[in-house]
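Re: beginner question about structure tokens

> Can someone show what the tokenized structure looks like for a real chain? I only ever see the sequence side.

Sure, here's an example I had lying around. Input first:
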Amino acid sequence: MREAVAGFASAARNAIEAGFDGVEIHGANGYLVQQFLATGSNRRTDEWGGPVENRIRFAVETVKAVAAEIGPERTGLRISPANVYNDISESDTEETYTALVDAIEPVGIAYLHITEPVPEVRELTHALRKRFSGTLVLNPATDGPTGPEALTLIEDGTADVLAYGALFLANPDLPARLRAGGPYNTPDRASFFGGDHRGYTDYPAL
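And the corresponding structure tokens:
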């Protein structure tokens, strides 16, 4: 486990040496960090599994290691509470993520990035916002494409920055489309993980 944590720190150092401004630790979407957070996938019985304080250990140790390696001002963490992607199952989402944010708050990382898989997570987003004093980046759950109307989330203090994922893949000129209020290309999810130019360079511009 210590080797895995050290691997994140080493990768972060390599990224900075390669010229990147910072790194975002991917603790969302069913990947390794979230697998440790989730009760459905973390079946360990040692200090890395079981109660909440053990299940958050890998995420917390990774954040601390990366921040120590490249500086907390260059370190971000992405989480997606209640995200069932990649067969993730969480039985105590609120308890887990509030404990996680409480544990990383003293590290002083550059930002916390929350991806909301469903609108029902918004209440937890508000709770985490109160616990985290740094910049909060939000990829909000919306009924359709996240448009200018989502700026109310900045105005009411829910988040400091709005993030875009699939919509930016499908709309390389997304800033112009947001200013115009659309229209938006629909992301072709079948092309997300490999293939040729289709779904990569062939989305039409305005």
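Each token stands for a local structural state, so reading them left to right follows the chain. Strands lie at 23-27, 75-79, 111-115, 135-139, 161-162.
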